Amino acid sequence: MSLLILLSVFLSAASVMYLVYRNFPELNNDEKEKMKIPKDMEDAKALGTVLSKYKDTYYTQVLVAYFTTYILYPFVEMKFS
């Protein structure tokens, strides 16, 4: 039962993340390079810079992307660890 709950949380978060990705504005190549899960402080600062540029116009998409990324973050860490 717990595996089913875990799988449903993952699939729900992944679906929401896909919808945010589809509705996010077009990014240039430099911004696309910075849109990744940060591995260190430099990556986090670069991501913050890109997101702060879009947070006023696309507030909902940025907010939902932020929350779903941190829901999916433990799954990413398990995969790459």
TrEMBL record:
Organism ancestry: Eukaryota, Metazoa, Chordata, Craniata, Vertebrata
TM helices/strands, residue ranges: 58-76
Protein name listed in UniProt: Transmembrane protein 41B
Keywords recorded for this protein, A-Z: Membrane, Signal, Transmembrane, Transmembrane helix
Main location: membrane
InterPro entries named among the record's database cross-references: TM41A/B
Keyword match Repeat: no
GO BP terms in the entry: autophagosome assembly
Keyword Transferase belongs to the record: no
Family statement drawn from the similarity comment of this UniProt entry: Belongs to the TMEM41 family.
Organism: Acipenser ruthenus
Signal peptide start and end residues: 1-15
Localization (cell): Membrane
GO cellular component, one term: endoplasmic reticulum membrane
UniProt topology in membrane: Multi-pass membrane protein
